[in-house]
Amino acid sequence: MTLVATDITCQRGGQTLFAPAGFRLEPGRATQLTGPNGIGKTTLLRSLAGLAPLAGGRVTLDGQPLGALEGALIYTGHLDALKPALSVAENLRFWAALEDCADIAPALEAFQLTDLADRPAARLSAGQKRRAGLARLCVSRARLWLMDEPTTALDTASVARLASVLEHHLSGGGMALIATHQPLPIPVDTLGLSPAPAATPESADPFLAGSFH
Amino acid sequence: MTLVATDITCQRGGQTLFAPAGFRLEPGRATQLTGPNGIGKTTLLRSLAGLAPLAGGRVTLDGQPLGALEGALIYTGHLDALKPALSVAENLRFWAALEDCADIAPALEAFQLTDLADRPAARLSAGQKRRAGLARLCVSRARLWLMDEPTTALDTASVARLASVLEHHLSGGGMALIATHQPLPIPVDTLGLSPAPAATPESADPFLAGSFH
Amino acid sequence: MRALLARELTLALRAGGGAPQGLVFFLIVVLLVPFGIGPAPDRLAGVAPGTLWIAALLSCLMTLDRLFQTDFEDGSLDALALSPLPMEAVVALKALAHWLTTGLPLTLIAPLLAVTLNLPASAYPWLVAGLLIGTPALSMIGTIGAALTLGLRRGGLLTGVLTLPLYIPTLIFGARSAIAAADGQDPVPALALSAALTLAIAAATPFATARILAIQLR
Amino acid sequence: MRALLARELTLALRAGGGAPQGLVFFLIVVLLVPFGIGPAPDRLAGVAPGTLWIAALLSCLMTLDRLFQTDFEDGSLDALALSPLPMEAVVALKALAHWLTTGLPLTLIAPLLAVTLNLPASAYPWLVAGLLIGTPALSMIGTIGAALTLGLRRGGLLTGVLTLPLYIPTLIFGARSAIAAADGQDPVPALALSAALTLAIAAATPFATARILAIQLR
Amino acid sequence: MRLSGRVLPVLSALAAVSLAAGLVWGFFFTPDDYQQGSTVKIIYLHVPAALMAINAWIMMLVASLIWFIRRHHVSALAARAAAPVGATFTLVALATGAIWGQPMWGTWWAWDPRLTSFLILFVFYLGYIALWEAVEDSEKAADLTAALCMVGSVFALLSRYAVLFWNQGLHQGASLSLDKEENVADVFYQPLLLSIAGFVLLFVVLVLIRTRTEIRLRRAAALDQRGTARA
Ligand code: HEM
Ligand SMILES: Nc1ncnc2c1ncn2[C@@H]1O[C@H](COP(=O)(O)OP(=O)(O)OP(=O)(O)O)[C@@H](O)[C@H]1O
Ligand SMILES: Nc1ncnc2c1ncn2[C@@H]1O[C@H](COP(=O)(O)OP(=O)(O)OP(=O)(O)O)[C@@H](O)[C@H]1O
Ligand SMILES: [Mg+2]
Ligand SMILES: [Mg+2]
Fold first, then answer.
1. Given phi > 0 = left and psi -120 to 50 = alpha, else beta, which region is A173?
2. CA B193/CA E99 separation, integer angstroms
3. What is the pLDDT, as a whole number, of residue E186?
4. CB contact under 8 A, C75 and A78
5. Cα separations (Å) of A148 from A34, A55, B148, D126?
6. Across the interface, do E108 and D115 touch by the CB < 8 Å criterion?
7. Do residues E36 and E27 make contact, with C-beta atoms less than 8 angstroms apart?
8. Are A155 and A127 contacting, i.e. CB atoms less than 8 angstroms apart?
9. Cβ distance C79 to A81 under 8 Å?
């Protein structure tokens, strides 16, 4: 299973965000997505996840269009998908149940959440919340992990823990695409996004096209 | 004006968070607050800001208790205090007006927000949002800046920009206390929080005290 | 599927959840009416079924506005959209959970409140039947409004504005049957129409709502 | 001070803000009543003042629940608490802005809606006077409920539960005067009591609310 | 855009002429009705406004469908442009109806099915406009309002039948239909047709103007964005 993206671009508010980019992600490899604030990393990840449309280019997973493969990927964004009223274990158990995964203990263990398992998510510190959000990765069977700034609010020990979870996923043939501003302590390929060249009329807002003078 | 904290501790949910800590902050100096996730950095900053009570110890600003000095400090937390429906400039102008500061242009300039000034805050990327939140520092006259993980979501260029804003503030006799997991590119003192020793009956929940046998 | 339903129910019943408040709100709106229009028994009896229906509708509405909102704000909706469960099922289950925690208890308590409003005894079964048949439609329709206003600040209020007109057919048929019974007319046709309406709505809305949610997540 | 008032008004009037929706919600609740209780003009006339008051109350309530909530969620309330402006002033200004964008327009449109409910002409001035005097109290009282439920998921609903009982005195006196006028009795005493109540509330609530907010921010 | 720019003045002129002619003819050159007296003349405002209120919604529905299926940007903007016009016509129909109702039925308002469904239609217009205003992202707003328009149409129809079931009304039925025997007398009929034509043209002109404005606003916003991006 290989993810191939060629010449993809995204738009926001009718504007092309970055110059067409391509990458190739083999099983067992991770790619780090870099670029200055506002270049479109989040938008790109959401587009790959199928939550937003791509503005151009093609993405295939083993030759098939990506959209056909629901459940083959998981996306962790800026938000942690935690219910403040539920405990850490309850939150995780719900996501596990959706993926038919019965045992959440390893996931809690991996992010050192075992002691916090019964604490309502509302009463976690920023870093603990993030860890609980990331634990969702460990109960999913998705091969492709799309992660948006996963290290936010994590201390060094937790970053190391995340790295070892990632390595375990990759060594099992998984793939990961990680947008981050911080260096990751695992070997990764890098994909840097660069600004789009000055918008050409066609690529930009439809209302800039010729017929609307 | 000097901030002196002696033997301060904080509690959350009836539990003492970190071993009593003390520090001294002189004009023109910044202190970095470090410690693992969940140790109580955020809680400490909020207590110093007067938003939460201190569980023990004393804090004085030039010998006076800290609480008496409203307006002398500003706190930027995990949240950015931005209204999604208002533009960046409108958001900032409001905070500036509360501080009787008329000109927001330098603050926008300092965080490279001039181009984004008319964009509604809802349509900013994570890093752009954070920059807009931090710009509030530049329209305040507060001497003491309490900052909770200010570099979250910022790219390297923006971190450098934040550092130069901080240096400017310090060189004018300001003070800053900054909780962060990432190294800061300016010279700072460091205050590391360490876990509290096993709870003594007196310091813990009132219902564990002697009279409730 | 079962996990989602269980989660929704837990969240609704847990401290701060919508379920008890929905009921209490219903109760309070009904209790306000005598204060607002005065205590004369005749006047009250005349407006009793209508009051109960309007109160039910408003308290459904108030509990609905955050149906997807919290999931949207904390990123759960993104994760649900990418989960193996189809979005239509998510919508249907959420509507079901909403009805179980709001519409159903409210239907069960309505006869008690009807006493305070002097509703004639003959109208009781029809009132309950009407609510039982009509309130699921309120929950289903509500998902449309909730989805449309997702992510808007003050979305809750706009939800009301968009959803209330959609509620009118359900309200008319539902209230009609109890009023007819109270006035000694035949309550059956209104009830039958109400049932047909609910079925049609239950069949169609999950698809519409799922479509709207996909747009919102872009 | 002026900056805060301006900001609140802008936010309320800006796309997605509460002001137009508050009005439209008022309109819709009133509109629902005939569907609920049937179109007979006599019956409608009997409940007209009460309906308008209850609708005003509910639409105040619905716009109130997020009065501090959004500021709390995005960290603005922390910043406001540490700003040079005292919290009491923040509360009073927010209540004022809320009344200007909800209570006042709603009072102005009420006579028009009264027509659709067949309210007798003699009651019009008393209805308007009552709303004009009573609605500021609704906004002020609402700040208490909004502050108490801050930070709770589904806070909006709990706000309702906590606030509605506090609204009852205002509702009784306010509605009484219009009902008295419609029934040919003396509407003045009820109105005077209502005015006294509003003054007392306006004087006391900012302090109570500011205190509650300080506790919430801990 | 260019085509609409050229047609617009002509249409405007036509609209003005037929409206003026229809209304003046209707108001000043028709006899009073033997039953209703001169109040009958309000028909020249009431009926066309009522017809156009419904047609405007239908036009929005069609435009929304086109947007949904073909993603033709102008159709989304046309639907947006039509909404306030339709809402205004609805309001005019309601207001003239109320003014007419006072002498005819002795009341400004009655919960007659026809009037009631118009009120509901008005609420739908308001919700539609509010939603357009509330959503920041223009493409998303177009999608959402289109969805609302379709769902709303279904429910507007449902409400109509529900309302008929709920109350038999006072309002007269349609008497303009061509196959009916008893149409309104010819003296009333011809100016009425003329003013209906005037209202149709007025609607088209207003929608065209508003659509052109919307397009230009969008263009301005897009250019503005591109400007900031370059800077
Ligand atoms: C305020 C509320 C009213 C509304 C919303 C309203 C609505 C309508 C509508 C939609 C039509 C066009 C129907 C059609 O041609 O099929 C219409 C026609 C008409 N309305 Fe009204 N109406 C109102 C009040 C009144 C009143 C008070 C009267 C007079 C007593 C009246 C008299 C008529 C007449 C004579 C027609 C022409 C019907 C025909 O086609 O022969 N309407 N109205
Ligand atoms: N809802 C929106 N509507 C229009 N434009 C938006 C919206 N959200 C974000 N943008 C713009 O789209 C661009 C890309 O945003 P995105 O969030 O993808 O950036 P990013 O690379 O993730 O940045 P960061 O490192 O700050 O998270 C930014 O310039 C942003 O201003
Ligand atoms: N509302 C709350 N009620 C009870 N306990 C809480 C609450 N919020 C946080 N805590 C607990 O208090 C402790 C300190 O939290 P705090 O947010 O101050 O940590 P922190 O040092 O800022 O951590 P991080 O680096 O993750 O941001 C944590 O162990 C957390 O679980
Ligand atoms: Mg991002
Ligand atoms: Mg913290």
1. left
2. 76
3. 61
4. yes
5. 11, 20, 21, 60
6. yes
7. no
8. yes
9. yes
